[in-house]
Amino acid sequence: MEGSQARRSVRGVVSAYVALTKPRIVELLLVTTVPAMMLAAGGVPSIGLMLVVLVGGSLAAGAANALNCYIDRDIDQLMRRTSRRPLPRHTVSPRSALVFGLALATVSTVLMAVFTNWLATALTVAAVVYYDVVYTLWLKRTTWQNTVWGGACGAAPVLIGWAAVTGSLSWAAWLMFAIVFLWQPPHFYALAIKFRDDYARAGIPMLPVVRSLKRVGLESVIYAALTLVASVALWPFGMSFIYGVPAIVLGVLFLKQAWDLYAQARRGEKVRPMKMFHWSTTYLTLLFVAIAIDAVI
Length: 297
Fold this sequence. Notes:
Blueprint: H1 2-20, H2 23-41, H3 47-71, H4 73-76, H5 94-115, H6 118-142, H7 146-166, H8 171-194, H9 196-202, H10 207-210, H11 213-233, H12 241-266, H13 273-296
């Protein structure tokens, strides 16, 4: 009986620390990293290098998220969506979360420095610092443009993967960065609409909190259109119709979802943002799968 309780206790502790890293967000970041590496290599890069970047990137993203949980512990307890995270539930202490996040950041930095190159390592460190210092501590709490400018760290894995393969950055790398950067506002605006009462309660000036749903819908349309433009702009940079056709079709469908959201708000109907949220995830995944297939073929 005692052994069973001990095992449950260990599992609970491990689960709490894993939750600090926000695994679902890490998975989405890795979806963009591997295709970027494949395009940079013109095929399949070294398996060893891919593993290093995936592990190092996962640890860095996990570190950024754990530190985010530490910094946001005051507002997480005020929001229903985040109240079950480890710190609000007191399953992990703030000090332990801080140490855990810093330890993951250190290991990821050492791993990238030893096995990749200075540019990939510097970009990895910069992404963690930007997310936790610039976005979490400053932008998130002070401006309704937090979602837009916070997108830089979410798009950084594309640059990190490219730099790990080539040691430099090209126009193709920056265009993929632009795709992910421009994709993020419609994606996170949808989530912010669903949980805008939570954000309002915590005093976070997300766009749906401080502006009308019509304004949020219009911005979603604009950024979805810019995402489509950026994805098509990547086509001439070594890509074939294997990427180009899906980029157009997926981009148009993404834009339609944003337009439907805007139309609902403009007509005063009940807005259904989660359809947009889930489709935007599918869009990004399929687009980068097309990049990977085109790079290999």
